[in-house]
Amino acid sequence: MIYADNAATTKLDINVFEAMKPYLLEEYGNASQPYSFSRSAKAAIKNARQTVALCINAKPDEIYFTSGGTESDNWAIKGSAFSDADYKTTITSQIEHHAVLNACVTIKRLRYPVVYLRAIKDGVITPTELESVINNRTRLVSVMLVNNEIGTIQPVKELCSIAHAHGAVFHTDAVQALGHIPVDVHELGVDMLSASAHKFNGPKGIGFLYIRKGTIIVPYADGGAQEFGFRAGTENVASIVGMATALKANCEKLDKNTAQIKGLERLLIEKLNDASIQFVRNGGNNTLPGLLSLSFTGAEGEAILHRMDLLGISISTGSACDSMHTEISHVLQAIRLDKTLANRTIRISLGKNNTVEDVEAIATALKKIECDR
Prior knowledge:
It is built from 13 helices and twelve strands. It is of the alpha/beta class. It is globular.
């Protein structure tokens, strides 16, 4: 089996699994309890919080552990809106993950205004676009750092500066970016940032929301005093440890992993070109290494996916969250991709565990599928 859908999820690193095991089998105490058996779990959470903070240049008490990117996005959008008695506007983009888009649908239903930024053809949200709609009645701007379908890296630093100039808070969904490109919250200037461990070789069901000190937001869940009183619920100690371990490992080997993945990406494009396969690559020139949105002139995306699956190769037609739906991706619609090409689009996302042999097999399979149509 060749796995080339790393944008959907990644393989758990073995060192991450080993780091988690003690807190599943031996040090299983509830970190909120005062007795000595719980001290190890409490210390593990503290150390993990420090590790995560260090990886993004934040302070430990600005890191709030969550169940993943979806929860973090929902908290950022709803928690910001519901803290505002003046019903100010939330601005987001048309190409966000549905965790952001659907959270915006909810707040809009509750009379909080929402404005959607348009992307240019390459999938970029331009500073000019934000400038055209933002004003002093804007409460929050939320634009993702890397698009999960086409891989476009957004000019978040510039967008953030515009938001702050108008007194607005800035949130970025960095789920697809963290652990794969450098992320420094102070350099970007963001006030909130969402992340999910399973995107960088950590366990599923754990993530975090970075909230800059002084940012006004309501608690996510009421109950106990966990997460500084902002997110009640017994801590998932093993997964928290696993996430910190995975993020540290990926950040320490970022340059090495990036060079390897870029090499595989170049090889795949070369192989497709050498085979005279006609395709269009979406997302522009500044994309996440290894994430390729390719539109073909022949077979439809769904057909390619299933043919590849029969050959033992896992790819995607878009976001894993939309896999049960067959309509054209909202991202491809937003960048105004021709409908025929949009229906013939697949997503290949290479990771650090992929090899040259994997890429050669993928290219050979695509050539066979295109020639057989």
